[in-house]
Amino acid sequence: MFQPSIFDSLSSHHQLHKASENDLDLIRGDDEYESKSGTDIMDGEDGKDPNQRPSKKKRYHRHTQHQIQEMEAFFNECPHPDDKQRKDLGRRLGLEPLQIKFWFQNKRTQMKAQHERHENSQLRADNEKLRAENIRYKEALSNAACPNCGGAATIGEMSFDEQHLRIENGRLREEIDRISGIAAKCVGKSMLSYPHLPAGATGSLDIGVGNFGQQTSGFTGEIFGAADLLRSVSGQTEADKTVMIELAVAAMEELIRMAQSGEPLWIPGPDGLSETLSNDEYVRSFSRGLMPKPLGLKTEASRESSTVIMNPMNLVEILMDVNQWSSVFSSIVSRAATIEVLSTGVAGNYNGAFQVMTAEFQVPSPLVPTRENYFVRYCKQHPDGTWAVVDVSLDNLRSSSVPRYRRRPSGCLIQELPNEYSKVTWVEHVEVDDRAVHSIYKLLVNSGLAFGAKRWVSTLRRQCARLASFMENSIPVEVGVITSPEGRKSMLKLAERMVMSFCNGVGASTAHTWTTLSGSGADDVRVMTRKSIDDPGRPPGIVLSAATSFWLPVPPNRVFDFLRDENSRSEWDILSNGGLVQEMAHISNDRDPSNTVSLLRVNSTNSSQSNMLILQESSTDSTGSYVIYAPVDIDAMNIVLSGGDPDYVALLPSGFAILPDGPNGPAGGNPDVGSGSSLLTVAFQILVDSVPTAKLSLGSIATVNNLIKCTVERIKGAVLCDGA
């Protein structure tokens, strides 16, 4: 049986449109005849004499400009008026209801004809696009070559798989040409494939070996600014950027093998849940370019998999956009910047993208030094549809005697699942000098819960659930004064900014310096000051931040439940003056009911606090918990609840970070939050003077010191008493 080709189908489709246009023109002719004013028709009939032969030419009565404007305005509001509306409108305009009816009928016919003409023009344009695309495909197929002999091939000789492979081959060739062009600009010569490096550079391919600059004494250091890094990159040898590309490509291969391999590379733990990297097997499997581990550095390696409620494309965008990455992982990434983009990728996405970046990783406590890194990030979509994003430290781009932190190939694989879900497999593999970590945090850091893959995946899973909740408009508000989806979203945005501000100010980031007030104990109070000027998100003046961390022989879940419960707030919150705390609004942002955003009101006898509310977010996952809050002015909060912009609401967040103290039990596996003892960090931010140029008094420091110490004593007394 004869099968029409795609070209014949398109031609028939075009002829059909032409026929439709001719029919439409005939319809329009009838419409034009019927679209005359109802007044025109009536006037022609009222003046007719029954004994007189009808005249060929009718007299028409035109509506006044005022009548037309009024009916046009009414038509925009109601195209189908009922009898009562037609009578009221006719009474106002001095027209009969039948005249109104005919005018509206004609107007609807006119609008329909205009709509059909617009649709017809769109169909004609789409038809032309299909015709042009059809011609392009026809020319491409006519120039196809046989894969065996290289001669001309007919359409029937080339399978669909071969055509797909040729398209993929062309895309990959375009990607290689793009990367080669970037490298050629740096080395001054073309590069047909990933190069054989010059003799002087072959020994520098140390996968994962990167030095992040000269460190100062202790655990404090100076992270390199964007200008310093740009000068450093531009001042390197001509093969430096070629080395970056070669490093990233090799790191991608290693990441995939690390994520997909089992034994003997990964040895299962006694509990059946954890696993340990075999260093001997790693050296045998990835010996290419591997250099010895510097003295004083220890290896940390971990792997974790989980399902998250987000599609792969959105996950890749979060990982490749430094602002989104810093926001989603604000509890881990204290600072980050993209120094240079070597490639933006191909095909309109991040496939094949290379970025040179710097980041600082933290634990929410001033007792754990941050980890600063300078690395290249590479994103790649593999033939099976799996996305992979890998980081690897850059080598020989910075002069330093002894590196303190090196990031071997680390990152994640993202596989698409049904219903907008993804499976994420995360690998963290680093070498670090952790001797400056305080003793009470040693067990936590050594267990991998502090910086390992489990923390990255747990944070990502919780944040994806939060983002899904933010996008959902039909989730009911269990308690409170939120009456619209816009108000709900504004409140969640405000809470997100509050959490980010808290996380950026509670760790040991080198961006600020903590001063210890007394002694050398773990629970000593550390303070720092900041000046807030022209920042709409902060109140103007001098802000004093204070933080302390200590160990509690109480399970983390018990501490978390005590601190987030508004009914027990008066037991530790000195500023509430023992007043009753009432929850005015409650938003769940996860299936776990503990992950919530709340709006609280303190019924205090203090008149100065009668116009204040408290915004609070509580969140928990298998590696840690947070209770973060900030006082908010009632008038400002009313604007937020009505859907207003939350960016101009001044916040000074305070709160708590609750972490497990490490593995629990003889099995040595990574615990959930509800087991073992707790490491609690308490952090306050207080506006001590509304004048930014004022000098900080010793009395203000003493007041804040006493406030945080009294809060700690109250918490210890309450939770230890409950646990007894």
What can you see in these coordinates?
There is one protein chain. This protein is an alpha+beta fold. 39% of the residues lie in helices and 22% in strands. The chain has 17 helices and 19 strands. The chain has helices at residues 6-34, 38-46, 65-77, 83-93, 97-142, 160-187, 226-234, 240-260, 279-285, 312-320, 322-328, 439-447, 453-471, 485-506, 556-564, 634-641, 698-723; strands at residues 266-268, 275-277, 298-308, 333-346, 351-361, 371-381, 387-393, 405-407, 410-417, 421-432, 515-516, 526-532, 541-552, 580-588, 596-603, 612-621, 624-633, 654-660, 678-689. The protein has a 9-stranded antiparallel sheet with strand order 11-12-13-19-18-17-16-15-14, with helices on both faces. Strands 3, 4, 5, 6, 7, 8, 9 and 10 form an 8-stranded antiparallel sheet that branches. The protein has a two-stranded antiparallel ribbon with strand order 1-2. Strand 6 (371-381) and strand 7 (387-393) form a beta hairpin. Helix 1 packs antiparallel against helix 5, helix 4 crosses helix 5 and helix 6 crosses helix 8 (240-260). The longest helix is centred in the N-terminal third of the chain and has 46 residues, at 97-142. It starts with 5 loop residues before the first helix and ends with a helix.
